[in-house]
Amino acid sequence: MSEMPEVPEHPTGGDAASTGRGTDAARAAGPTRGGKPRTGAGGTTRAGAATGTPRKAGKAQGAGEAARRGGTGEKARNEKSDKKDKNEKKVKTTEARAAKAVQAGAAGGETPGENARKGAPQGREKGQEQAVERDEAAQPATAAATRDASASAESPGGSGTSHAPHSPGAAGEPGAGQASRTPLLHDAAHAPGRTEALGVLKTYKLFIGGAFPRSESGRVYPVTDKDGRRLANAPLASRKDARDAVVAARKAFPGWSGATAYNRGQILYRIAEMLHGRIDQFQHEVAAAGGLTPAQARTQVQAAIDRWVWYAGWTDKISQVAGAANPVAGPYFNLSAPEPTGVVALLAPQDSSLLGLVSVLAPAIATGNTAVLVTSRDAPLPALTLAEVLATSDLPPGVVNILSGDPAELGPHLAAHRDVNALDLTGAAAELATDLEAAAAETLKRVHRPRGPEDWSRDPGTRRLTAFLETKTVWHTTGL
Amino acid sequence: MLLEYAAAPESRAIVDIAPSYGLFIGGQWRPAAAGAAFKTVNPASEEVLSEVAQGGPADVDAAVAAARAALPAWSGLPGAERAKYLFRLARLLQEHARELAVLESLDNGKPIRESRDVDLPLAAAHFFYYAGWADKLAYAGFGPSPRPVGVAGQIIPWNFPLLMLAWKIAPALACGNTVVLKPAETTPLTALRFAEICQEAGLPAGVVNIVTGDGSTGAALVAHAGVDKVAFTGSTQVGREIARQLAGTGRRLTLELGGKGANIVFEDAALDQAVEGVVNGIFFNQGHVCCAGSRLLVQESVADELLAALRERMATLRVGDPLDKNTDIGAINSAAQLARIEELAGAGEAEGAQRWAPECELPGRGYWFAPTVFTNVSGSHRIAREEIFGPVLSVLTFRTPQEAVVKANNTPYGLSAGIWTEKGSRMLWMAQRLRAGVIWSNTFNKFDPTSPFGGYQESGFGREGGRHGLEPYLDV
């Protein structure tokens, strides 16, 4: 999109980082937004809206919003505009329109579709939507104030909405105008004239310390399938999210590494059990993420389940394979035993949204390490759903933390982080990997850098297990 | 002085014992070909629990044939698939753990606290551990693609029925073998319940076959030419016979036999903890433990103090209903075993040792023996040399560590030993010199599926548990 400006990394609080929050000006204008000019939409009355002028997102909207906000550099392209478009299309009958009118009346005379494109001024419906997103009761029209107050009730990283514009790979993205017209794929079944209920679409969240926060930056980016169709938004994790994730991972390390190997094995097996329970869901997500056929996706998911089982069986064996009683030439008992190194930062493979990710994550935590994992940038959704599996598997909070976003943005911070012990560069492109390896040299991190593309269907071997182990050798005299 | 506790009986309602059981062969239940059966009783009450099939040669033959038939498919499965079957079995054992624990206590006589807290968790853990090896055999140190041995004939004792079943079946299946298992005559019920669990897990027919019966059934299994490997846990006497029988046949054999473990307490040991360790060593499971610490070797300088504390502790042990959660010592497993214990205890007195047992009210019905300690024992006494396999401790003394080593090793057995000292280097020095396959230091009777277990000399050969436990079931 030509009109997509840069997004500051850390939008300030006063800025409407989240479109739902609204600007001060918007708030000052009060809940009713009737006075705000709408480009291309005709009047602010229901009637005008109801004539159903097709909304053109993008350019006109952006200009309008920029004008409203007076802020620079924020594109209020509403990622939920797709849904609003679809909503709009559904509003075909007078009856439906009337129902919407009642709803929107409180919002000050804007259509749902219009609301969707707004940055600052949010009608009541929008506020309700925001509230629903956060599983709160619907708030009255002072939605903005409510959102501000309730933002703290959410996880620390969340900023209250997922409507920050911008995506990392903006240049290559389909135009927002076209994308915004396409229903989210989840809703593909809900074509006009549908008889089923409207889908309650999942908001994808990060996974930090066992909780599901949004990015503290409030940013999201659209995730599309290989044909460019919109799947959902994913949080665009920030440096602070990475910081929080490392803190959570470090906090979880003593407990996880102190658990018995048997206990860890049981939990990894439980993850396989839980993943198996959702095999259909993951098949769907993996197919969409990777452009795979259902059969191919099924194979991948089954292989991912089997991979968890493989590593569940390693937890109480790696010591026997990688450890040793050493026959030193003296009256000493000498034992070498492997120990987990600590917090491991993992860059998941870009092109294997579940199987590759599991193949990178499981060996790291099997031995007692805790993990901060950066998903595939373009295919993060299966990873974020995997977090739900982890959260229901008795895995202690903080053992695994999952950040969706751009490895080019997050990688350098993790590579330089002084409380990260090791780094897996699988998901980094060659040049980035080299940079990260150099950055990691400062703290002498243990770096695992695969040589070339990996075939995730093959026997993984023990390399990924031993990469994040330290060998401790203890001597004890023997003698009366 | 025994504190008055209210009874805390575990309910029997959780188990559902059938009036009779057949043999589990080829995934099916069938009566013995000859139709013979025998009864299994609750040793705490002499109540008949069920009637069980007596497997004859024809049944053994059928079971071996079923195992042989199932072998190609089972060993041909990818290791990851075998692993998943074994994980299922582990998870099902966990799910049914309480039921199996109660069943075990009813059939065996051991306290519910032990079957619940030791037998069942360890049995599940063994399946869980070996499940994880099934697809990792290339990493086990036996070559890049080790093959199974084939059909394993496995004979297990009555002291830890389900746990011994797990020790046998889990590694065998993980390595791709199929099995015919003969449970002990007096404790078949948990093995039969396990067969039902195999069905619940969807285990392919013929991979596990359970043939109940007495010693003759076991003998038929050992003698069967269709068995590629025999694994036996039981008395040294029977182990000798099996070794004789297999001589020259080329069939593989592992034996886990008796013991007369020495529990060695040095003067610098933490005495209270040592007392607990000694009590655990000989009275856990009524002393029905091959690796029991049945000889206490205490350094002279602390002998009186230790023995006084030991007697005081023994007086607090509760003998009684195995299903009561307060019970420490349950019933002796059978009338035959009780007779043997009584005979040897009588020999102890006759040979001049000093016998002591706390005041103990024993129930009227059932097979019971009070915890007993003999002092003034000489190394030549029967009770110092022969395995009693009951709650009877023989106490000897020593002055120097070298003497302790000599006395501890002065046995044809070599299964276990315990060392109680605060000085690590002395413990390691002793451990290097003791001829025993399992050595516990400042603890006793600790088991883990990752930890190899087995004996020296007449305590048998081969190891169960750990990476080492794979070797007997691989063609290497």
From TrEMBL, chain B:
It comes from the Bacteria. GO terms for molecular function: oxidoreductase activity, acting on the aldehyde or oxo group of donors, NAD or NADP as acceptor. The keyword Oxidoreductase applies. Keywords: Oxidoreductase. Signal peptide: none annotated. Residues 29-475 form the Aldehyde dehydrogenase domain. It holds the Pfam family Aldedh. The keyword Translocase does not apply. Belongs to the aldehyde dehydrogenase family. PANTHER family: ALDEHYDE DEHYDROGENASE-RELATED (PTHR11699). This is Aldehyde dehydrogenase family protein. It comes from Streptomyces hoynatensis. The lineage of its organism: Bacteria, Bacillati, Actinomycetota, Actinomycetes, Kitasatosporales.
